[in-house]
Amino acid sequence: MKVEDSGIIEHQHGGKRKNAGRKTHYQEKTVVMRVPESKVLEIKAWLKPKPEDDLSQKIELQAIRNQTALNIPYPAIADDYSFTDQDYTEDSIDLNEYLVHNPLSTFVLRVSSLSMKNAGIDLDDQILIDRSLTAGHGDIVLALIHNEFTVKRLMKEKQQRAPTKIWLKAENPDYPDIYLRDEEQLIIWGVVTCILKKLR
């Protein structure tokens, strides 16, 4: 404000300040648009930036080597879950045999994205991949597209009067599904059989 000699108080604005006002999210003019209320969340989800897919040209696979048996004892407990010395009997399980059915064709891969989070596969989890298995609808696979690898769920949809539609599903809504173009070739490198996850 500025006080004049006449005693009248006059409002005086200092003009536009640098970096003042609302910040724009886009580098172009925006417009106001009216949409049905029921579609607001859907449109907001569509506008939300999507992370790039986890396609990678380089992955580190480790071969399985069953050098020694790994027998872990476990108790047999009565059906009512009571536990006494009389009920206790000990058996054992060999994790090599339980987890790996085909040692020569099974590999370990450390996961480097969150695209399969809702399938229980988190960042840095290790997964077992068996190359000897034939992938079916719904299997989680290590796929190869244009020399780039990705872990996704294989989807096969039968079409009337058309070839079966094959695509790769991400188990995380923040990541895109992969639909093949006509010129793209999909190679299923192996089927994921197990998730190795440490809780501590």
Structure characteristics:
6% helix, mainly beta, two-stranded antiparallel ribbon, single chain, Umud Fragment, subunit A, disordered N terminus, 2 helices, 200 residues
Description:
- With 200 residues, this protein is mainly beta.
- The chain has a domain at 61-196: Umud Fragment, subunit A, CATH 2.10.109.
- 6% of the residues lie in helices and 34% in strands.
- It is built from two helices and twelve strands; from the N terminus they run E-E-H-E-E-E-H-E-E-E-E-E-E-E.
- An eight-stranded antiparallel sheet has the order 3-6-7-12-8-9-10-11, with no helix packed on it.
- The protein is elongated and about 70 Å long.
- Residues 1-9 have low confidence and may be disordered.
Indicate the topology.
Layout: E1 2-3, E2 9-10, H1 40-47, E3 61-63, E4 71-76, E5 89-94, H2 95-99, E6 106-110, E7 126-130, E8 140-145, E9 148-159, E10 162-169, E11 178-179, E12 186-196
Antiparallel strand pairs: 1-2, 3-6, 4-5, 6-7, 7-12, 8-9, 8-12, 9-10, 10-11
Question: Nutshell version of this structure?
Answer:
With 200 residues, this protein is mainly beta. It has a domain at 61-196: Umud Fragment, subunit A, CATH 2.10.109. Helix content is 6%, strand content 34%.
Give, in order, the helices and strands.
EEHEEEHEEEEEEE
| Largest sheet: number of strands, sense, barrel closure | 8 strands, antiparallel
> What class, by secondary structure content?
mainly beta
Based on the structure, what is the oligomeric state of the protein chains? single chain
The CATH class of the domain at 61-196: Mainly Beta
Count of runs of 4 or more consecutive helical residues = 2
What is the fold named in CATH at topology level of the domain at 61-196?
Umud Fragment, subunit A
Rg calc: 29 Å
Backbone shape? elongated
Tell me the strand order in the biggest sheet: 3-6-7-12-8-9-10-11
CATH architectural group of the domain at 61-196: Ribbon
What is the total tally of β strands?
12
Uncertain spans, ≥5 residues at pLDDT below 50?
1-9
The name of the CATH superfamily of the domain at 61-196 reads Umud Fragment, subunit A
Biased composition (Basic and acidic residues): 1-13
Organism: Acinetobacter kyonggiensis
Domain Peptidase S24/S26A/S26B/S26C: 85-192
Region (Disordered): 1-24
